Amino acid sequence: MSIVDLYEPGEPVISFEFFPPKTDAGYRALFRTIEELKQLSPGFVSVTMGAGGSTRTKTVDLTIEITREIGLLSMAHLPCTGFRPAEVGSILDRLDAGGVHNVLALRGDPPADDPNFESPPDGFTYANELIEFIVEHDAENARVRSERFSIGAACCPEVHPEAPDAETDLINLKRKVDAGANFLVSQLFLDNDKFFDFVDRARAIGIGVPIVPGIMPIATVSGIRRMAGMNGTCFPDELEMELQRVEGDDDATYQLGVRWARKQCEELLARGVPGIHFYTLNRSPATREIYQGLSL
Ligand code: FAD
User: Fold this and answer.
1) Which of the listed residues 3, 39, 156, 186 has the most CB atoms within 10 Å of its CB?
2) CB 9 within 8 A of CB 44
3) pTM of the model
């Protein structure tokens, strides 16, 4: 089943993102989370891959297990920094054999904890090159594939931190769509106006594929500030004031996180987004509370 088909006009598609845990206890907790979130009937779930492909085996195994054992449509994230084309080819073949035919094609970043990390000389520089490779590899293997791959890509409503300006970033985003990305999932944002403005600008330069907002419930004040800092995410004044009020109070922070994300989701859905992608951080309570407050 192709994820892009889910985004056909109709009911908005809810999806949940997980990351591969480091420990057995983490896996047990994740599977409890997935079972709880499965009750919300998500369209699909996705599994991240660590920077530099560090969790490649876990990511592939987990997406296959979620597909086969839990019965949810799943998508593997595939950051290409550090990979040779042949390695990407073998990951795609393993996913195909395991019944996973949806990938989020990303550039990724070098691992922050590995100062000696080097990309292979015949590797990929940008995500559009990875997408071109996936499309070609898929076409070459069409006769042995049970299904073709559907390809998602990332987008940054508030501009990727390395981009010189918003216009250049959009032109680069269009390269990914032109290369074969079927849908886009956004980086987190806390101000819906940034997202709506970005969608208008993307449509104006001819990007026609579904653009799905990514929502991260605030779990801790320090955590959201760190994530926002890495991605250049702005805090609306109202949220900034509320964050200062709840800082140090875990329960109040959790409640604020649910309230803010729900408010964002309500407006996004009212204005017709094709779906919402939740960054769950492998936990279910906040996502469940947000979801249950929505009129879906
Ligand atoms: P690109 O699209 O390649 O863009 C990166 C930068 O290069 C941008 O500034 C862009 O403007 C510029 N650029 C792009 N193409 C060109 C070109 N042809 N010529 C010149 N400049 C160009 N990271 C992980 O490691 N693992 C994950 O699982 C993961 N999951 C993610 C999920 C989502 C929904 C999102 C939004 C991000 C995720 N990331 C993940 C983070 C992502 O890898 C980083 O944001 C990374 O810095 C950029 O990836 P990209 O695919 O957007 O890169």
Assistant:
1) 3
2) no
3) 0.97
Residues 93 and 196: their CA atoms lie apart, in Å, by 37
Residue range 199-230, pLDDT digits in tens: 999 999 999 999 999 999 999 999 999 999 99
- pLDDT of 254 reads 97
16, 56, 102, 160: residue to mutate for ligand 1 pocket, most atoms within 8 A of CB: 160
The confidence score (pLDDT) of residue 149 equals 97
Picking from 39, 142, 46, 43, the residue whose alpha carbon sits closest to that of residue 96 is 142
With 0-12 / 13-18 / 19 or more C-beta atoms within 10 angstroms meaning exposed / middle / buried, residue 206 is: exposed
Go through 265-276 and write b for each residue having 16 or more CB atoms within 10 A of its CB, e for each that does not.
beebbeeebbbb
Q: Which residues of the chain have pLDDT under 70?
A: none
Ligand 1 pocket test target in 55, 88, 126, 227 with most atoms within 8 Å of CB: 126
Residue 174 C-alpha from the chain's centroid: 18
What's the pLDDT score for residue 65?
98
Record: fold of 10-292: TIM Barrel (3.20.20)
In three state form, how does the secondary structure of 29-47 look? Answer: HHHHHHHHHHCCCCCEEEE
